[in-house]
Amino acid sequence: MIQETSIFLSTNDFAEPFTATPVGGSARNINGIWKTENSPTQAGDVTIINDAPSVEFATADSTALIKGSTIKRNSTNETFYVLDPGLDIDGFTTKTLTRDIPQ
Question: Domain of 23: which CATH number?
């Protein structure tokens, strides 16, 4: 699984860098794969349209990023907040994001 993680999260392939700041923690740079609002995601034979932005990255980098943590997309200088911390699936975690500070 390590090989797939490094391939998908390479900025030479699919990923782009972002800055993640856990609640009460320090900022650090992580690579992830972004999905914007209204982008299609294939789930088997079904296509799902995301109504919220999300970012997928290595689970090892995600454990401290709980609801309310800040994620800044470096390429667009947009700031998002973690809405749903997601689950580990084969070494990857997808965080659902929001532009508004979650309550």
Answer: 2.40.10
What would the two tokens of residue 83 be?
């809405």
Q: What is the rounded (10 degree) CA torsion for 5, 8, 13, 17? A: -80
In a domain, 11, yes or no: yes
End-to-end CA distance of the chain: 35
Helix (H, G, I), strand (E, B) or coil at 28: strand
With a threshold of 0.70, does the pTM exceed it? Answer: yes
Number of domains in the chain: 1
Q: What would the pLDDT profile of 45-89 be if each residue is shown by its tens digit?
A: 888 777 889 999 899 988 899 999 999 999 999 999 999 988 888
| Separation in Å, CA 8 to CA 25, 38, 93, 98, 101 | 26, 22, 13, 24, 29
